[in-house]
Write a structure and sequence with these properties.
Layout lengths: L1 H8 L8 H13 L2 H11 L4 H19 L1 H5 L6 H28 L4 H6 L10
């Protein structure tokens, strides 16, 4: 969404400028999820449901990156502790997947339908 907004602002849909488009893509790709949300809110009206999912996903990702092992500490040394850690990881995965599905839905992509599709398992000539 931010990529489209920035391309519209730069007039790239009317006037092709591959160098500028590449610069915009590079800039958007360097942003963290939090930066993307902040910049997106500057360009569009806030989508409350999506906003909440993305904020939760960002918070869970940050917790996984910075706090997960500190929170669980020596639980990894027992079967019960590892089970708790695994359940926590499943919750984090669920939050990230829910946000991912919601973002894909904005582009009319249904991840559940894609998962059911039969993909080729043999070589196909190109």
């Amino acid at each position: 969404m931010l990529l489209v907004a920035r391309c519209l602002d730069a007039g790239l849909l009317e006037n092709k400028n591959p160098a500028r488009a590449s610069d915009i893509l590079s800039a958007v790709n360097r942003h963290t999820l939090g930066q993307l949300l902040k910049n997106l809110n500057n360009h569009t009206e806030s989508l409350d449901a999506l906003d909440a999912l993305l904020i939760k996903a960002r918070d869970e990702l940050n917790r996984l990156s910075h706090l997960f092992y500190r929170e669980h500490n020596f639980r990894r040394n027992s079967d019960e502790g590892r089970a708790l850690m695994l359940e926590d990881l499943k919750g984090i995965h669920s939050a990230l997947l829910d946000a991912y599905k919601a973002v894909l839905a904005l582009s009319r992509v249904d991840l559940e339908v894609l998962a059911e599709m039969k993909v080729p398992t043999r070589h196909l000539p190109i």
